[in-house]
């Protein structure tokens, strides 16, 4: 019996090749898309789930709020907070650890490498139970400056993993070279973790004495601070303790009062604690993605992607069921003959169910093949290394099989339940197939749903892509072309030679200028301190309250190199005196003077409605590594987008502090860029042979800020295109079915005088109505979703763009539908009436 069912099914497939192809191919695309998306979702949801006791480990985040400027949010915390909170919340905290990540030069056998070294308190392995390849936590991480390296680093530097006792030269944690001994080898941390540690050093606090803003600070946020909670303690309970400490016992009570601030410390400082398993997907809104070890994910993207997967699969399933039920209505005579020959209703039902499940499983096989073919390109777009294997994706494969079987059962249920009950005498007497009452309206409804989803996805794709292009093409307020960024000037061997290296690089043909600064565009750093505006008369009693403002150290010629012209006053001038902030004096109570430039946003923040009014006024501040200064405002420059436009602009103060500048901007103009890069590399190797050269093109750095948005837009476009393709395949199948079913009607119309174009217009309009209705459904839904999504950008497309995208998407969908239907309609309408009237 089953052999007969199988043969009948295959005959039906090959007899109706077009319908079979559309059914199988459409469902295969849907299943492939769904599996690809859920591979990504599964990977995102797996972050840090391998970490023992991860739900008891929390990280402390910081957010600083200040009037008239965006909030500064970061994953880091001040160095003093760990001990203070551990003592205050002793009932909740079992232990804690600080991580300090520092870019260092590592030297081995006259070869130099840039590495990120993580310094950690000795309690690190009390919190993070990382596995070892060689050594153990007790003996290998027992004293200051013990070095642990990952398997990858061991192979990179030594070609093997049994390297305990080997040494590496590190430069320059204490502004000097240090020989460090490898005390153990860690297994490589899984990629699906927020941790990114290849070199771990036991923290000796004294090595950062030269930079008290790292560990010995209540305000500078330069440490990643983790707490392991006691059994029974909760994240919310510990967070409550943090705020109690902040508002009752912290030094911020006095700091706020001294700065003239009113209210509680939590009014301008908002710490948060978050469990480690939540960091990857939920920390971005809370911590701003500043300074984390690996790029954060976003739970909103996971939700969106999951919804897209479900919608595409729904379109494919609707398509499969729609065509299956439509085609099944043409098999009424087959059912009648089977029943006449003795087949029971159950046997007929099983035949239809089996055929539908067989087709859906065949679609699943093709979908799996498609996943294997597309996965490399998919990984390139996402920057992942996802794979589809039976062992690692058992759950996903089981779900895919279940979905395929379920779709097959649902698609086969109509013919199984409805056609199997037909009375043979009525069907054979009528000598025709039968379409159940209302099934045409159901199919039209399903087509409406298909195209509503497809059009909605197309609108969302256009908006996401448009916002990405808007961000990349927006005028940032400075020149971006012809800029090379060079780093590593903080390393001790060349810090003293920075100016001479800059002059040497400036002599290379094609180089127009070399200027130094503490940051360059795209650097996600913030350096904040309190600035107090003095009265014009210098009367201390008339001074305003302190304003927390971001500051940059920039070189003479920095604004000129970036094409930033002042709107009032001037920029820094090397020929003038009193421009530079010098190294600190032994007597830190002596107040000195220097010049500063501020941006327009800072001028407004300080209370100036007119930029020119700020010129000549004096700001009083304590400058890091310099001491107290009175800073005369000599100029006001426009606000520029040094960071991604997602974060907006910020009030900024610029001053010349040579000791705090470690990055160079090389402005060039040449037609032979490879020769210029070679010349710069040669000069660097000659002048700084023991320091690796960090060189990037500014345009590439700016584009990298929007890489996630571009990837998101690319994937949306790809999957939206697949959704539209599946919907159009279904529409074409229905057009073929409708034309075939109305063949006699078309013949009679032509006999009665109807022209070919009249018949084509009739068929096209009939199958276009569901697409028109789909537009009316898709537009308001897409509008609501995209308006909400755009709110996440400080600078964004206007609502008119969404309307235009909706109209274009709707028209394109309608044109595609016309093209899909018209071809079949023309072919049927052009046939001779005699053939149509003889059609059965």
TrEMBL record:
Species of the source: Gimibacter soli
Protein name: ABC transporter permease
Cell compartments where the protein resides: Cell membrane
Annotated signal peptide: none
PANTHER family referenced in this protein's UniProt entry, alphabetically: ABC-TYPE MACROLIDE FAMILY EXPORT SYSTEM PERMEASE COMPONENT 2, MEMBRANE COMPONENT OF TRANSPORTER-RELATED
UniProt membrane topology term: Multi-pass membrane protein
Keyword Oxidoreductase: no
Residues in MacB-like periplasmic core domain copies: 20-241, 452-655
Domain ABC3 transporter permease C-terminal: 307-422, 718-825
GO molecular function: transmembrane transporter activity
